[in-house]
Amino acid sequence: MNFPKVGSNIQIHSYKHNGSLHRIWEDTIVLKGTSKVVIGGNDRIIVKESDGRNWRTREPAICYFDSETWFNTIGMIRSDGIYYYCNLGTPFTWDDEAVKYIDYDLDIKVFPDMTFKLLDEDEYELHSKAMNYPPELDGILRRSVDELISWIHQRKGPFAPQFVESWYERYLQYR
Q1: Is 138 annotated to bind ligand?
Q2: Could you give the CA distance from residue 118 to residue 107 in angstroms, rounded to a whole number?
Q3: Number of H helices, E strands in the chain
C-alpha cells in the first residue's frame, strides 16, 4: 500500500456523514507518512469550503492524523504560543489523492496553557438529527472526546512538549 511520501505536497479533505465534501486544505507538506500516522506542515494555505468560499490560514501549522483515533489535531504556531484545533472525526484514510476523514462537528480548542474548550455541540446535535447519525456513533464520539481530553492532560502525542516545534523545524527544511 502506498502512503504519502515525506516531502510531498498533499491535500486534506474532510467530508460530512452524508458523504458531501466539507472542506479542502491545499498544499500540506508530508513530514511523516505511514499506515498509522500522517504528520504534515503548512503555512498560510488556501482552504476551500463546500459553499465555494476560500480563505487562507493565518499561521504555520502542524497537522497530526492517527489511523486509530477518532480525532485529528492542528497545532497552530502563534506569537503567544501554540494553539490546537482538534476535530472529532473518523480515523484518516489515504487514497493517493488526499488524507481524508469524516468530520463529526465536535471540536476542541486547546490554548497555550493547555486549558481547552469543547466547541460546536449545537452543530453536532443538529447534524446528528439531520444526517441520522447512528446511536453507536454517538458513543464512539463521546469516548473519543474523553480520550482526546486525556491526551491533552497527559501531554500525549501532538500535545507532548516540543512536538509541534520539532516538526515545524523539519517542515522548514522542505518549504
Answers
A1: no
A2: 6
A3: 3, 11
Is the pTM higher than 0.85? The answer reads yes
Is 96 a known ligand-binding residue? no
Cα 126 from Cα 3, distance rounded (Å): 35
The verdict on whether residue 123 carries a ligand-binding annotation is yes
Instruction: Note the pLDDT of residue 1.
Output: 56
pLDDT by residue (tens digit) across 111-130? 999 999 999 999 999 999 99
Which residues are within 8 A (CB) of 31 and not within 5 positions of it... i.e. 6 or more apart?
6, 39, 40, 41, 62, 167, 170, 171, 174
User: What kind and span of H or E run contains 166?
Assistant: helix 163-174
Mind telling me the catalytic residues?
23
Residue 167 φ/ψ, nearest 5 degrees: -70, -30
Provide the mean pLDDT of the chain: 96
